[in-house]
Amino acid sequence: GIKVEREGVRLVQATHHKYCPLFVGKGDATTQSPQQRNAIHYMSMYDNKILRNFTGHSGEITGLSMNPIDDCFLSASADRKVRLWNIQQAGCLAELTLPAGSEGSPHACFDSTGLVFGVAAPMAGISGHLINLYDARKYDGGAFAELKLARTSIEKAIHNKGVAPELAMELSNTEWTSLRFNTSGKQLLVTANKGLALALDGFDGTVNNVFVGEGASPGVPPTQPLAACFTPDDKTVLGGNEDGTISCWNATTGKLLRKLEGHVGRVGCVAVNPKYAQIASACTNPALWIW
């Protein structure tokens, strides 16, 4: 396990080096500068030593994404910056400033090939979201695709799934919490507060499907962010529920296929093994499932 009593642990990202993860600590506002408090640490779990610190962000880091083919990784922050780094050097390779017309914290991720990365951010006035796609080899040339998803389109898609109009409007305004590609790169999965996930078309950004998790008890809507992911074959979306179950939805139709039961509380993390038919999930206790 990771033992970092001074920094604490808030975010963790695996790397290509078996015993060396990246992590973001909780920081101490009374003794650390914003850059120190929001540093990214590269750590050896073999001897419990921090190998390198990556500093530059002045706001809370909202996400990390490792390139699947090399040692580069992305970080997104509440300072409205997305930075590209390489584990082998301390300084960042590039800094991306969010485009005009956006506000709030961004989210960023690499696709499964490592050749493309996406950046999402809310548009001003709660009018929707921007999603920009970049060539990882030519990022300095700007985005090769700039997608806009209007809030009204999200609301309509949620309502079309049978959600009441008032709740559909509320969910369409909720804050996004993560962004990730499916294996083929043809879809993006967005998770959000209040148990919401959206499957978006990877080419035009339209809503392909809507997934809403379960609350802590029957009839009570979820209040926390939904933890969700695609399976490696892109056929299923898995979502952790507040009642301790994991929903398994058909990624194409949105139909609930089954529920996995076994957790005692909210499932706050769900991940899949890209090589083997395994699912890892966690609430207050971790679990490993055979798919």
How does this model look, in words?
This protein has helices spanning 34-37, 151-159, 165-172, and strands at 11-13, 22-24, 40-44, 49-54, 61-66, 72-77, 81-86, 89-97, 107-110, 116-122, 128-135, 145-150, 176-181, 187-192, 196-201, 207-212, 227-230, 236-240, 246-250, 256-260, 269-272, 278-282, 286-290. It is built from 3 helices and 23 strands. A hairpin with a 5-residue loop joins strand 18 (236-240) and strand 19. With 291 residues, it is mainly β.
Task: Please render the helix and strand layout as text.
Layout: E1 11-13, E2 22-24, H1 34-37, E3 40-44, E4 49-54, E5 61-66, E6 72-77, E7 81-86, E8 89-97, E9 107-110, E10 116-122, E11 128-135, E12 145-150, H2 151-159, H3 165-172, E13 176-181, E14 187-192, E15 196-201, E16 207-212, E17 227-230, E18 236-240, E19 246-250, E20 256-260, E21 269-272, E22 278-282, E23 286-290
Antiparallel strand pairs: 1-2, 2-3, 3-4, 5-6, 6-7, 7-8, 9-10, 10-11, 11-12, 13-14, 14-15, 15-16, 17-18, 18-19, 19-20, 21-22, 22-23
Mean pLDDT: 91
Q: In percent terms, what proportion of residues is strand?
A: 35-45%
Q: What is the count of helical runs?
A: 3
Order of helices and strands: EEHEEEEEEEEEEHHEEEEEEEEEEE
Provide the helix percentage: under 10%
**Largest beta-sheet characterization:** 4 strands, antiparallel
Oligomer: single chain
Structural class: mainly beta
Unreliable segments (pLDDT under 50, ≥5 consecutive)? none
Note the overall shape: globular
- Round the Cα radius of gyration to an integer and report it: 19 Å
The strands making up the biggest β-sheet line up spatially as 1-2-3-4
Distance between the termini: 26 Å
* Number of strand segments: 23
